[in-house]
Amino acid sequence: MSACKVFISHATADKNFAIKLQDALQAHDMEAWIDHRELTAGEVLPEKIKTAIQEAQFFILLLSMAAINSDWVAAESDWALQRGEDITLIPLLLEGVKPAAAKRFLGGKELKCIEVGHNGLQGSMVAILAALEVRLPDHDPAITPTAPPVEELILQLSQATLVGEVGKQRGEAQAMLIYRPSAGGPPVESPDYTFRAPLGPIEAEELAWYLERFPRWPGEAFRGRAQAVENALPRWGEAIYQAALDQPAALTARSAWERAASHHQRRLTIQIKPGMASAEAQLFTLPWELLHNGTGFLFDGISPVRVRRRRPNYKEKKALLTQPPLRVLLLSPRPEDKQAGYIDHRVTAQPVAEVLAGLGDLARLTILEEPTLEALVEALRQANRAEEPYHVVHFDGHGVYLEKQGLGALCFEKAGQEEKLEDRASHIVTATELRGALQQLRVPLFVLEACQTSQAKLKAEASVAAALLDQGAAAVVAMSHSVLVATAAAFMTVFYQKLAEGERIGEAMLAGQRHLYRHKYRGDYLGAGALELHDWFVPVLYQEEGDPALVMQVPSKMTKAVVKKQQDAHLGE
User: 18: Cβ–Cβ under 8 A, 6 or more apart, which residues?
Assistant: First the structure.
């Protein structure tokens, strides 16, 4: 059978998006045709363009504000409309364009539109491919989402130590900045330079007050202090940027990264080699997600930067199985004693269950009925033996930091208890104990919807997130501070949607953080009014070197069924 032919109509301003779409479609054995000309006054549509539209089975219209004002795009669309039922029109609405505008542009014709918006091309590929498969054969070919290039900048810190007077000490280390081109070739490395953390215990305490204590009672008496912290976030981010990325020795590597990453995804990896343990821990727990270049936060904007922390991999780890559906094991320990207060399932675990249920056959949720450490280990072993290992283990419960031991911990339920909810006892499992219990159990992703799971003070490996990464998890999403239920629910909804669509973990993480940044409302408090919180940087990512998509292949029939379900639900709203 000959390749499916697709014509992509676009304005000059959307050329880069059109080229990426063309590359993605060609990776799926489709002939994608684009043209970079502009229509001049009095010019009719060239014959070669008419011929290309005449031969195409699909006409993808990239509809942006620039395209709406383009005579060239209008002429191509008119010619496609003249073909009637002989060609399928697929409007892709770029950011700022709504379906009503598409209807007006297409002369009142009603068409199902794909809204790209903040999702980007990768986040919309499932819907695009489903629309294009209308004319494909009835067999069930696999769709492999194309992973776009990622331009990586690595901040490598070594020989960490603490400097300054007691109580105000800050981490200091030898730094090297390394840019690794996605297309291969030699890396660009900076000379060594000194990095000194611009934030110390005083700033850390003020940030902890804002994130953990202010939301308990956001009254007027505390609003001034909270506003001061919010105003300081860009300054703190800029101070970290200047100390880490804006030093004279770092400019060559950083500039090469910025030039190459203008049309690709961007990632910054923080990697710390073993040094003075407490200094290493302080450097790891800096709020790197706040990085600000003086114009805006790096995680925001047209070419957003996703940040991750990486620890040295000391042992070889086997490859991960990433076949669909996305298999998620959810455990929600609900002890109720002095060590852990009860958390309502309806406002924490329920949003996760709902978003996964909405993905249909693309996701499979298993709830661990006995939320104990012993049951978790057994469930992982059984899944591995059945050759259906879980892609994600989602822990929804309490996390604590034990000051005396200097260890992070998770709060499970104690094994062997009766079924009644009240008086269930806690089982506090430290990072060290967790590392031992999960040895040799390879899990692609742990999601710790629990407080303080990335916190460590005496040594970096003392955090729960670091312990899981050391033991074999490929990635860990953790919380740097106590997190509000509303924050966790909003983040997880977007995060899981992106994972099931085939996004890399880092890109799904970035989407969740950006959603929190744009939607700061966290609820109403009696006597205190509405609470808006700047807490998008609380979810943090620990990861080994690779950053795969958890679902690399999505069967086409499965994709079409899920997309149709989502479209029907949207139309019914």
Answer: 8, 10, 34, 62
